[in-house]
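Data card: per-record layout.
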Amino acid sequence: MASDFQLNDDERARLEEIAKSPHSPPSLAQRSKIILASALSNASAIDIAQQHGVSPATVRRWRRQFSILGSEGLADAQRSGARRQISDAMRARIAELHAAGRDTRRIARNIGVSQSSVSRILRQMKPAVGANTEAPAPDISALIRELFESLADTTPLARFLKSLQNKTNSFYCGLLVFSNKSMKPSFILADGQPLEGELPYIEKYYKKELLLSLPEGKVITSSDLFSYDEFHGSELYQEYLKEYGVGHILGMDIGTVRGVAGNFRLARLESDEDFGARERALCEALIPYLRAALNILVMRLDMEAEKEALSATVSGMSVGSILVDPDGVVLEANPPALAILDQHDGLILTNNRLVLDEPAKSRLLHDLIRKNAERKNNFSASGSARAMMVERPSGRESISLIVRPGSGAKQLAIRQTALIHLVDPARPRTSVIDALIHLYGLTPAEAKVALFLSNGNSIAETARASTTSQNTTRSHIRSIFSKMGINRQSELIRTVLISVAMLPMQTQP
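The structure for this 509-residue chain is written out next.
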């Protein structure tokens, strides 16, 4: 018999919503479909019962319930016994954790219910076939741009970390940097205003961390691993986090590059909501870019440390180093070089351009600078290391000078530069003698002779200074040339200068 069962637009919309919702219990969704089918023309109770796998009596029962109570009449009546313990909020949290990839065991531990209850609820929430459950990809283009731009800042990444902190509504955002498999961070990069207590955290509390040994490339929150009571009962919370009101933590291990590892942390206050699907998706999308940025950061820090160490060592050995452009304009100079320039004695600066008192030698110097600077970007150019002596108007001993390309042939070069090494004989030189003894096996007497000759002294002057005969000095020179593999005094000057620069790379006996 044809049905005269009628639905208005509001009732139909409500029933369709219940039937299609992935969060509707299967029984309620089935009853809604029965009522919707009953409103179709020529729909008998027998046909509907066969279609939905129930009896005709069941179809008639839910029709009566709906006619009297509307959609509320389709719900199960409240049963006697213990009150239901899993609230709608808890069910929503179970669905959120499941969507984030958590297994039922971890969800159960986090929520504080049994694993079987979690499994049952997830079965009830099984999405309809064809439903789109994927969250839209977050727009991180602005963050990526700021990530790489901030690598050049005085405090690298600080600007990016502050932006990410604001983007995720976090209380704190930081990058923990580890080196050489260290058990605690070497340092923490934050937004320029580090969380007070950061140093005590590294020294005392990191060993009590809650998010240790995270899987690389995965976003994990403290609520994924610990229930509310477990988190608040932990030593880290009681002794450290509680002081700052931190109640939620998000972490991710971004991997290891060049022997340096990076761990990312976001934190929210107790009064804030926990990190959700939006923050997880954003952080997961950033991981490959964070790994690339870590690689660049490590390269920058390594170069800065190497430059500082080399500058300090060469400065300690009284070797001046000046980096100039092809026109002789000074770009950088170490302390010994600045000390020589401050004397204005043979070697001076004019409009920050390096010049000599003697015009002819000044032209020669600039020709050497230009050729060696061009050699940096054009390996077919004729530039090569070249030594010269700089006479001093004051009458003091001449300055030894060598010009070479600003970097090795295998290094990438952005701009053309030349490097000038200076040695002032008036400064203490004991370390240079030690370098010659160590590098070439010279005797102390031979090293002193080599040093005198490298300063431009003649054989007679060297013999007088050494209080030896000229024949003995010539004998020393033959031995020096043989051990150092050179033939002329100009080569000796260049080799002595290069030897001094190489000393930091050698092992002292």
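Known properties of this structure: The first helix runs from residue 9 to 20. The chain has a mean pLDDT of 78.

See the next section for split statistics.
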